[in-house]
Amino acid sequence: MEINFNNDNLTSEVYEKPVKKRKWDRWIYFAILLLILFSLLRWIISSWIFDYADGFLKQQQFDVKFTNDISILNYNIKEGSTVKKGDTLFSYEFFSDANARKKSEQDSIKSLIDNTTFENRLASIDAEISKKNFLLNDLRKRIQFWRSEKVRKEKLVYINQITPNELANVDRSIDDVQYALQSVLADIKALNNERAKILSINKVKNSLLTEDNKISKVRNYYISPVSGVVDRFRIANGQVAYKSDIVTSLIHEGQFVRAYVDINDLDEFNEGDHVEIKLPYGFNKTLKGRVRKIYSLSELKDTSLLNKNITDNKYGVVIDIVPLDGKSWKAVKISNIPVKVKKLKFS
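Below the sequence we write its predicted structure tokens.
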């Protein structure tokens, strides 16, 4: 066997293995195109067949709120409780009353200090009166002594044992002691008057403080104006509910949809029309309903919940939609969610 090592058979061409062409990717592109075309066609056709309106799924509810700032003191019921009209829901006080109560507590501390000062002043007056009484007793004893001395010396003058001048000295001593006694009596009277005045002022002050404390301890009670189920407490015990804050809500049975119909589409909706309500957020449910009421006045759309920018169609006519044939929508356990209302144009 001979081997030819001649390079004449060598070539610079590189052998390439044929690549098998893929066909499935073309089908993917084609399916995406069909999906886009179908969505576009559906959007175009649906606007010819259906009328739409934006709305909210709501429940009959009563929001508990105040026109003034209040402080919640204590709840008499629990969240989720069923209450009747006239039941007591909670106790509260106006925020101004709470400030007054705090001021009253501060005043009580100040009153305690004032009472200590008053007692010290009263004790000082009593001590002064006591000293004056001791001095008064001493002066009375001195007068008694000088009067007995005067009787004795009068006898001595009568028998010429002493001169009348010595008897006159006794009279002067009696006058001096009597003057001092009258002065002490005047001081005691003045101290007693001061003591009585201080006691009177303190009595009036204590009476006013007592009345003020009674007023500051008054509680207000909120009585339920309707029957329903108590929703969550948005304001906890001891916290302040500021003006127009919702404290809690009372939920009634029965849901409804409040929708906004564009003014241009108003002629397409009538009371009694059957509609479909599409729920958002992955509920994947469609509710059946009917138009219960179409209101006369248009309103500004609540775009905060609709999550839409205000456009030229920012006004809409309000309609109420209720469950069809009196059936409830209890399967939907939440409310205040945006929904889409759809109605056949030719129904």
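Residues 95-158 form the longest helix (64 residues).
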